């Protein structure tokens, strides 16, 4: 009877998760060659929406699943802390970040509240009785000092004598304990303008075509070393909205009164945040070749403590992961839903990293997050938060040789076998910085920099904002196609399909970002599944004047980073004649991608292709998964 379940049978699912209908998608022909002055969905026939309603012809399968035993939670302890515990003579105090288990998960998604601050106060009210007890217990029974609390991860940052911490670690009630700051690295070389990088990912046509579309409501959060907001590329038109200091600015990152002499929102010596922000959205004041990927507004959250080194042209920076969690919280509270993180902490096991839990939770609240893969050339050592399964992790290719993975790029797989980076973008180009130092060096003391400074930089930190800026354009575009409030997964899926592939590897992920789908047929779907779903993808070669010869299909689904067992989901593409064209069943993944190239360099024949998604083993506690599907035809 398994097979007989092939009809349009909707799964029974709780709608409250994102407050959206279970089926949400459409198919569109983008036929935009030579378009110079219109939006893609303008009335001039540039694009035609074929079906904005859920597609009735598709088939969905369903099966009942046996209830599985509930997992027993053991306290998990970060290795750094475990080593301290193992030293019996150590009597010092220890800093711990305790992530608590949620005994009764808060049931409502934030979209059911009037605004985010209302959601937050309801969440805190829900947790407070339990957390009040935890606080009491920590203080009275363990001599702890509570240094900080985070709603995003339901966690407390505490200091306590090591001997008491050892005892506390035996408590079944707590979930995770962590501690460990990390450092950011940087490197310098190269000669090409940012414009060459934009050319490499073919994004300018979209940037130009969107001139008449409204900008998104939220800003992009740049969680980095601050930003030089006076730089020419950020003013008239203005790009920087908020500049905050999460090192000295308290839980809102804005409380300048706590530490007035040290509160400093500027990227005063590292130049890193200024560069990232300029790649995302520099204006054209320094010429078209130096404008950013998007016209987004930027909210800057400084999380690197930066210090000039007197007498030398160096800048030392220090990162404490709790500042990053603070920054992500503040970004969500400020309404930012696209977040760029080009930093890492030295935490390897994704179950045990505070920043990883924070980005996972931020995704669940609607944030699209991009993280740099890292510049330490490691393999299979992805650190927090690059190893998170709810972010896209970006690797780097040399701008001068787009098939060459940068030698410094950290590659996967993650410790649990997932492919990372998820995709790559160019690095090594000329873009804005804070104008200090000269000769590509950091700022020396008393060098006040310049508002017209540019330099050439390299690193996965530089490739990440390329994708962050692209995500802004894509989100804007999806909204114009009728996807009212695209969830992060839909953007992730589309980005993964917009890569040059064709092979998915541990080094390249899905390959180099490539937005060159100017004329194509594009479809997207969002649904819940626990057995299989077959989607129809109709292609009409006669209306495709661009001559599409390849088809890219991607699915992405959200999984908790702390789960060690992965959902197994496979993807198949079948021709209009029912012939299997391509399939993938890569294990341990949270996405799958197929690239199908029509043989003989000819165009894809017309007809209805079928995209089938089979859900195999699910994680023990899951009854279904949410799947984001995108498919796109392209000329090459
Ligand atoms: C990560 O930590 C979890 C929880 O302590 C443990 O079960 C898992 O084996 C660890 N993974 C690796 C790769 O060490
Ligand atoms: C959020 O909504 C509540 C209740 O509707 C209102 O009192 C409050 O002013 C709103 N806050 C913001 C920041 O809009
Ligand atoms: C821009 O900054 C103002 C405060 O100056 C803030 O109220 C507003 O939310 C910010 N806008 C966005 C889109 O983040
Ligand atoms: C990390 O930041 C927190 C909050 O500012 C602070 O209490 C703690 O001492 C810092 N830890 C380290 C190792 O810097
Ligand atoms: C953006 O992300 C990249 C990669 O993680 C990082 O190197 C860069 O510093 C980030 N930029 C900002 C402004 O956060
Ligand atoms: C580009 O990189 C590829 C892959 O590493 C290499 O095989 C090729 O020789 C490079 N091409 C040039 C012109 O350096
Ligand atoms: C330049 O930097 C020095 C040292 O940080 C500072 O005292 C001075 O006020 C700055 N000058 C200007 C014009 O900003
Ligand atoms: C990625 O690396 C793992 C571990 O070396 C290997 O088992 C897997 O086959 C690799 N995946 C791909 C797509 O090459």
UniProtKB/TrEMBL annotation:
PROSITE patterns membership: SUBTILASE, SUBTILASE_ASP, SUBTILASE_HIS, SUBTILASE_SER
UniProt record similarity statement: Belongs to the peptidase S8 family.
Active site: 224, 272, 461
Signal peptide start-end: 1-19
Cited Gene3D superfamilies: Peptidase S8/S53 domain (3.40.50.200)
Protein name stated in the entry: Peptidase S8/S53 domain-containing protein
One MF term in the entry's GO annotations: serine-type endopeptidase activity
InterPro entries: Peptidase_S8/S53_dom, Peptidase_S8/S53_dom_sf, Peptidase_S8_Asp-AS, Peptidase_S8_His-AS, Peptidase_S8_Ser-AS, Peptidase_S8_subtilisin-like, Peptidase_S8_subtilisin-rel
GO biological process: proteolysis
Peptidase S8/S53 domain boundaries: 220-478
Keywords: Hydrolase, Protease, Serine protease, Signal
């Amino acid at each position: 009877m398994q097979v007989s379940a092939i009809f349009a049978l909707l799964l029974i699912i709780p709608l409250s998760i994102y407050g959206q209908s279970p089926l949400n998608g459409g198919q569109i022909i983008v036929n935009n060659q030579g378009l110079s002055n219109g939006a893609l969905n303008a009335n001039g026939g540039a694009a035609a929406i074929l079906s904005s309603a859920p597609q009735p012809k598709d088939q969905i399968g369903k099966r009942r699943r046996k209830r599985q035993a509930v997992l027993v939670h053991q306290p998990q302890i970060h290795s750094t802390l475990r080593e301290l515990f193992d030293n019996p003579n150590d009597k010092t105090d220890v800093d711990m970040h305790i992530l608590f288990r949620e005994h009764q998960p808060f049931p409502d998604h934030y979209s059911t509240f009037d605004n985010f601050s209302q959601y937050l106060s309801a969440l805190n009210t829900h947790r407070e009785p339990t957390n009040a007890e935890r606080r009491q217990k920590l203080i009275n029974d363990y001599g702890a000092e509570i240094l900080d609390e985070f709603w995003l991860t339901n966690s407390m940052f505490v200091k306590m004598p090591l001997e008491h911490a050892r005892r506390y670690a035996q408590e079944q009630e707590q979930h995770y304990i962590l501690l460990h700051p990390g450092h950011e690295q940087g490197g310098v070389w190269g000669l090409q303008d940012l414009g060459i990088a934009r050319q490499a990912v073919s994004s300018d046509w979209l940037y130009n075509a969107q001139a008449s579309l409204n900008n998104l409501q939220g800003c992009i959060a740049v969680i980095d070393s601050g930003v030089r907001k006076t730089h020419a590329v950020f003013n008239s038109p203005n790009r920087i909205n908020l500049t905050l200091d999460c090192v000295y600015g308290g839980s809102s990152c804005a409380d300048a009164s706590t530490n007035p002499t040290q509160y400093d929102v500027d990227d005063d010596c590292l130049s890193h945040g200024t560069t990232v922000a300029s790649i995302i959205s520099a204006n054209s004041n320094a010429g078209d070749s130096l404008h950013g990927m998007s016209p987004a507004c930027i909210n800057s959250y400084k999380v690197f403590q930066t210090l000039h080194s007197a007498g030398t042209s160096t800048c030392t920076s220090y990162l404490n992961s709790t500042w990053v969690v603070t920054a992500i919280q503040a970004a969500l509270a400020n309404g930012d839903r696209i977040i760029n993180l080009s930093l890492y902490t030295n935490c390897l096991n994704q179950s045990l990293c505070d920043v990883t839990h924070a980005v996972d939770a931020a995704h669940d609240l609607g944030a699209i997050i991009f993280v740099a893969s890292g510049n330490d050339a490691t393999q299979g050592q992805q650190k927090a938060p690059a190893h998170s399964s709810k972010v896209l992790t970006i690797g780097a290719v040399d701008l001068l040789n787009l098939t060459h993975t940068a030698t410094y790029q950290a590659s996967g797989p993650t410790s649990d076998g997932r492919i990372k980076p998820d995709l790559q973008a160019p690095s090594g180009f000329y873009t804005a910085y804070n104008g200090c130092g000269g000769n590509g060096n950091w700022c020396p003391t008393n060098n006040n920099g310049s508002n017209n400074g540019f330099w050439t930089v390299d690193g996965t930190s530089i490739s990440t904002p390329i994708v962050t800026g692209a995500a802004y354009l894509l989100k804007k575009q999806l909204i114009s196609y009728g996807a009212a409030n695209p969830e992060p997964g839909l953007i992730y899926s589309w980005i993964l399909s917009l890569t040059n592939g064709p092979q998915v590897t541990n080094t390249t992920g899905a390959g180099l970002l490539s937005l060159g789908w100017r004329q194509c047929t594009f479809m997207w779907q969002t649904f819940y599944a626990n057995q299989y779903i077959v989607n129809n993808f109709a292609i009409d070669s006669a209306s495709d004047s661009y001559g599409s010869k390849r088809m890219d299909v991607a699915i992405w689904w959200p999984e908790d980073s702390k789960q060690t067992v992965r959902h197994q989901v496979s993807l198949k593409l079948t021709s209009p004649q029912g012939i299997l064209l391509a399939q993938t069943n890569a294990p341990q993944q949270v996405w799958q991608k197929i690239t199908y190239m029509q043989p003989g360099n000819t165009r894809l024949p017309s007809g209805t292709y079928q995209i089938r998604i089979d859900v195999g083993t699910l994680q023990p506690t899951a009854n279904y998964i949410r799947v984001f599907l995108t498919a796109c035809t392209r000329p090459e």
